[in-house]
C-alpha cells in the first residue's frame, strides 16, 4: 500500500512475488495504516468542532498528559528528492531513506543492522558488513544522508526522553511524505503523522493510538496533550490553528489512500 511507481534509482533485482499468505499480511499492514488515519481524522474533527481556543477560560495545562509522549518522532530530515529521495532520522538515532523509486532503507541505531523494504512492502534484513551488491548505491546514499544530518542539522526534541516502547515494538518507517508552502508532512508506518512548519519551526506530532498531540513550540518547549482533554479544557489559538491545518493534511493523506511514497504537494 505504501508505494508509488515512478522513475528513480536503478531497482535491485526483483524477488518473486510473495505467496498468498504473505500478500494478505502486506495488505493488512496497509489496512492498519489507513485505519489509523481514519481514526486520526475522526479525533481531529471532534477537537476542531469544539473550537478549543474560543473558550471563555482556556485551561490548556489541564489537557497535558506526559504519559502519551510518543515513542518515535522524526528528529531530522533532508529533502533530496530532486535526485534520490528523502532522508530522515528518528529520535532514537536510527536513519532511513525513502527513495524516489518507493523503496526504503533503514539503518538501526546500532549503526550495523539494515532493513530494506521493496515497493510491494516485502522486507529484507542485512548488516552493513553483509548485503547484496544490488544495494551498494542505496547504502552509500544512506550513509551520505546520515553524515549530512549528523553534521548540519539540529535534533528536534533532543532534550526529551521518548516514552518507553515495548522491546518488541517495530521500528516504524516513513510511509508517505509531502511538502506544502507552509510545512512538511511525514507519515510513519506506526500511524504517527508529524507536521513541521517552516516559518516558525513549530511541530505537531499526532498519534492516533494514544489520541494525543505533541506540540513543539517556537521556544522548543515540548508538551503532549490528549485530544479529548483539549476538547474539554481548550487550548491556545496557535495550537488550535495547527490542529485545523492537521485535519486538512490528514484528509489529504487519506484521499491518497496512503498509497504513495510521495503525495502531490499543494497549499
Automatic annotation (TrEMBL):
The keyword Metal-binding does not apply. Keywords: ATP-binding, Kinase, Nucleotide-binding, Repeat, Serine/threonine-protein kinase, Transferase. The gene is Plk1_0. Residues 73-151, 173-255 form the POLO box domain. It holds the Pfam family POLO_box. GO terms for biological process: mitotic spindle organization. One of its GO terms (cellular component) is centrosome. PROSITE patterns: POLO_BOX (PS50078). It comes from Vidua macroura. This is PLK1 kinase. One of its GO terms (molecular function) is ATP binding.
Amino acid at each position: 500500500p505504501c508505494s508509488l511507481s515512478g522513475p528513480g534509482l536503478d531497482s535491485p533485482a526483483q524477488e518473486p512475488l510473495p505467496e498468498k499468505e504473505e500478500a494478505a499480511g502486506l495488505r493488512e499492514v496497509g489496512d492498519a495504516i489507513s485505519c489509523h488515519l481514519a481514526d486520526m481524522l475522526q479525533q481531529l474533527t471532534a477537537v476542531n468542532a469544539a473550537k478549543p481556543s474560543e473558550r471563555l477560560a482556556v485551561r490548556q495545562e489541564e489537557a497535558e498528559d506526559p504519559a502519551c509522549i510518543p515513542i518515535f518522532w522524526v528528529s531530522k530530515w533532508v529533502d533530496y528528492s530532486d535526485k534520490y529521495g528523502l532522508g530522515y532520522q528518528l529520535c532514537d538515532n536510527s536513519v532511513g531513506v525513502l527513495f524516489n523509486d518507493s523503496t526504503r532503507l533503514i539503518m538501526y541505531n546500532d549503526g550495523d543492522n539494515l532493513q530494506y523494504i521493496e515497493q510491494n512492502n516485502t522486507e529484507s534484513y542485512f548488516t552493513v558488513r553483509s548485503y547484496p551488491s544490488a544495494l551498494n548505491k542505496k547504502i552509500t546514499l544512506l550513509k551520505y544522508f546520515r553524515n549530512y544530518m549528523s553534521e548540519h542539522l539540529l535534533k528536534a526534541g533532543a532534550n526529551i526522553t521518548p516514552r518507553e516502547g515495548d522491546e518488541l515494538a517495530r521500528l516504524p518507517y516513513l510511509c508517505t511524505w509531502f511538502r506544502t508552502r507552509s510545512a512538511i508532512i511525514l507519515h510513519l508506518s506506526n500511524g504517527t503523522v508529524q507536521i513541521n512548519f517552516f516559518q516558525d519551526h513549530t511541530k505537531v506530532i499526532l498519534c492516533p493510538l494514544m489520541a494525543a498531540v505533541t506540540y513543539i513550540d517556537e521556544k522548543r518547549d515540548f508538551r503532549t496533550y490528549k485530544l479529548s482533554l483539549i476538547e474539554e479544557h481548550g487550548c491556545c489559538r496557535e495550537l488550535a490553528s495547527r490542529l485545523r491545518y492537521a485535519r486538512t493534511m490528514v484528509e489529504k493523506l487519506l484521499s491518497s489512500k496512503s498509497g504513495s511514497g510521495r503525495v502531490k504537494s499543494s497549499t
